[in-house]
């Protein structure tokens, strides 16, 4: 599961003991079945020996979200494994936290830049669409005005033709009357 050199996070509250003899009890590690013994060096844990009914267990409570480094791992028999872990020191934990915070800030800054670029692109596209709409409206107005002018011109030509026809008819009438 984990390899030598891995860094891992211990996510849950976990019971541990500082007395190896306790581990021979079948309730804990026991002598049979597949099992793993973790040899853990922690800098922060809670000694709960005085709060438990069985004081000889010398129980400690490992705090959740503790960073560990897996220094070694070995199979001591077919059923037993041994893993040696050491918790990160307070300075290492703070350095890791700062590195994670810096990465989060960088990610946030990048997301802000991306959001600003996306907003600018959306605004440019909106302006482009508004310009295209304005041009379409102007073109429609121009076409309507051109069609109206053409109709007026045709009507004027029709009226001129009618007037000319009337004048022609009058000339013909006047010439036949004379």
What labels would you give this structure?
about 180 residues; alpha+beta; four-stranded mixed beta sheet; three-stranded antiparallel beta sheet
Give a quick summary of the entry:
The chain is α+β, with helices and mostly antiparallel strands and 178 residues long. It has one helix spanning 90-177, and strands at residues 7-10, 14-17, 35-41, 45-47, 59-62, 66-75, 80-87.
Blueprint (SSEs and pairs):
Layout: E1 7-10, E2 14-17, E3 35-41, E4 45-47, E5 59-62, E6 66-75, E7 80-87, H1 90-177
Characterize the structure shown.
By secondary structure, this protein is an alpha+beta fold. The chain has a domain at 7-88. 49% of the residues lie in helices and 22% in strands. The strands form two sheets. It has a four-stranded mixed β-sheet with strand order 1-6-7-3, with no helix packed on it. Strands 2-5-4 form a three-stranded antiparallel β-sheet, with no helix packed on it. The longest helix has 88 residues, at 90-177. It starts with 6 loop residues before the first strand and ends with a helix.
* Cα radius of gyration in angstroms: 46 Å
SS content category? alpha+beta
| Shape summary | rod-shaped
Largest sheet: 4 strands, mixed
Our measurement of the CA-to-CA distance between the termini, rounded to an integer number of angstroms, reads: 127 Å
Order of helices and strands: EEEEEEEH
Number of strands: 7
- In spatial order, strands of the major sheet run 1-6-7-3
Give the helix tally: 1
User: What is the overall pLDDT average?
Assistant: 83
Kindly estimate the percentage of residues that lie in beta strands according to DSSP: 15-25%
Report the uncertain regions. Answer: none
What proportion of the residues is helical, as a percent range?
40-55%
């Amino acid at each position: 599961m984990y390899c030598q050199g891995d860094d891992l996070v211990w996510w849950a509250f976990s019971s541990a003991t500082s007395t190896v003899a306790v581990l021979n009890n079948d309730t804990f590690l026991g002598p049979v079945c597949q099992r793993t013994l973790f040899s853990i060096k922690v800098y922060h844990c809670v000694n709960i020996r005085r709060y438990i009914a069985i004081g000889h267990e010398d129980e400690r409570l490992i705090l959740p979200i503790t960073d560990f480094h897996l220094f070694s791992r070995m199979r001591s028999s077919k059923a037993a494994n041994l893993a040696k872990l050491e918790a990160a020191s307070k300075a290492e934990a703070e350095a890791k936290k700062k590195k994670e915070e810096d990465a989060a800030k960088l990610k946030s800054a990048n997301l802000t830049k991306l959001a600003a670029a996306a907003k600018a692109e959306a605004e440019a596209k909106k302006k482009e669409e508004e310009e295209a709409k304005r041009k379409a409206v102007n073109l429609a107005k121009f076409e309507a005005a051109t069609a109206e002018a053409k109709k007026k011109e045709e009507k004027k030509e029709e009226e001129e033709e009618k007037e000319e026809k009337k004048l022609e008819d009058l000339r013909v009438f006047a010439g036949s009357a004379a």
